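Folding Problem: From Residues to Backbone Shape
Fields: amino acid sequence; protein backbone structure tokens
RECORD BEGINS BELOW THIS LINE
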Amino acid sequence: MPSSQPQKSTSVGKLFEFQSQLPKLPVPALSETLPKYLSTVEPLLSKDEFAQTKNLVEKFGQSSQGQELQRRLEARAAEPGRANWLEEWWNDLSYMGYRDPVTPYVSYFYTYKDDKLRRKPTQRAAAIVRAAWAFRAQVASGELAPEMARTTPLCSYSYNYMFNATRIPKRPSDIEATYDLGANQHITVARNNQFFTLELVHDGQLLSAAEIESQLDRIVERADSTAAVPVGVLTSDNRDLWADNYELLAQASPQNAQTLEKLQSSAFLLCLDDTKPVTREECHRTYWHGNGSNRWFDKSLQFIVCDNAKAGFLGEHSSMDGTPTCRLNDYVLDQTLNNKVDLGSTNVRADLSEPEALRFVTPPTVVRAIEQAAGRFSKVVGQHQLRVLQYEAFGKDEIKKLGFSPDGFVQMAIQLGYFKMYGKSRATYEAAATRKFLHGRTETCRSVSNESVAFCRAFEDNAQGVQDKLAALQAAVKTHGAYAKACSEGKGVDRHLLGLRLVLRAGEEKPEIFQDPAYARSCHWNLSTSQLSSEHFEGWGFSEVVPDGYGIAYTIRKDALIFHIAAMQNEFGLNSDHLAHYIKEAATEMRATVLAAKLAAAPKL
């Protein structure tokens, strides 16, 4: 049976050994947040606008209402049994209560490097399954080491939602269901818009890679010889529409309810696509959304292998952020690409049972719902543009030699690229992890600062010398680093201000600070950015968060920078190709300027 609570204890095993010691997410003081907020809105406003905003912010800080809202938030944080004052609100507002389709708007994906050892798609898929199962075994036993930020342990709570977990559509807010790992040792395999159950344990013994490959071959042969109504596309829909159609599907036949249970309780999904993507954009689109039908977008983990053995991963975001799945996928790729994975015996047991086809009964009402969902999926996907910038001039190693934080340097390359294209800076979101706190997730690192704007202007001013440009870049990166550090300590501004808004009671007047147009402007993320890095990834990605903005996922490898730049094709005239061009130009100019400044400052022989 599914549960909305994790099925295993969060207090046993090495993975959870620090949980009881983790501090709770703090509530910053108003005197700390409000000046910091002003420093982040100033570069986005005119002098007159900033004067007005400053007046409203200072008024709020001194008001009895401001003090009362702060008191309520602190009281909420101190409630016995509450692990995290933000958790319930954030999970509902950003994920479970969010009603746009999870793909492309919420889920994220990783693109794998090619496996030179395994050119046959089912062979590569089998190795991926074995490696993922080994990781799952460590999670199930609790023997996986907890993640650390240097010497600081990070919260492991989200690992409870990694395997055998799914999102289930409900009005007005979805739920997350988890299933017992020991009782559900099967995966779901998708091929040709059909689903199959593959039991991974036979007679008490885990299937070898050879056996998994053999079973996958059987699935491919069966699926490719028949056609089925593409039920999976229902999961791509608006969440309210999917919630209605979920009930329609479940009630169409008792068999459908059983099929849903079997699919949802599986450890993860393995999608065997019949496509052969070649270009980076083709690969990114395949793992981001595919054809909409050979997926079950509600599952927490989906490994995707194409007919040319290219592969990737799609993660459902609602109960788990990217760092745990980045760790999982980095492990899978390290094991498979470096031939470390335990493949088991090369023998295939003759008594393996045929994989079970998961059949849905689809009366005309369900078929119509599927056709309509497919149409909406095609429209949403067709509204999106995508460009992948593989920048191979330098990467992390060179940036460090230049004397900069790699993330800060890349964030400024994005800022300068956007400034080159639009002539101004706009609100920028960078995800910052707060997992050093119990049930912590993320805070917003506001990348635009007075220093970042000064840096952009300096680099676009030909009258500025290289030393002045270098100083401006150093100041911008330093400010970014300080803000990012504050965010990791739970001392950003966005989650605190959100909490103050949410403790308002019905009928109470909204404070002027939140009615101020500057507040809305500073939270309108024209650039939504995030970094996840692995030497085994060829990139990763997600969508924009506002119609007039870009979603930029980037990977910093030792010798390369990879940017996934997504945006809508609409009346705002966005252009991912052009932004990629300007980011590349910005990165090149920044390196050249730093080298020129260092050369000019070097002692002459």
User: Anything to note?
Assistant: The chain has a mean pLDDT of 96. The radius of gyration is 25 Å. The longest helix spans residues 576-601. The longest strand covers residues 384-391.
